[in-house]
Amino acid sequence: MILVTGGAGFIGSNFVLDWRAAQMSEGVVNLDALTYAGNRENLAALQGDAGHVFVHGNICDHALVEQLLATHRPRAVLHFAAESHVDRSIHGPGAFMKTNIEGTFTLLEAARAYWATLNGPEKDAFRFLHVSTDEVYGSLGPNDPPFAETNPYEPNSPYSASKAASDHLVRAWCHTYGLPVLTTNCSNNYGPFHFPEKLIPLMIVNALAGKPLPVYGDGQQVRDWLYVKDHCSAIRTVLASGRLGETYNVGGLNEKPNIEIVHTVCALLDELRPSAAGSYTRLITFVKDRPGHDRRYAIDARKIERELGWRPAETFESGIRKTIQWYLDHPEWVLRVQSGAYRDWVQQQYQ
Ligand code: NAD
Ligand code: DAU
Question: What domains can you pick out in the chain, each with its CATH number?
Answer without folding.
Answer: 2-190+227-252+296-313 (3.40.50.720)
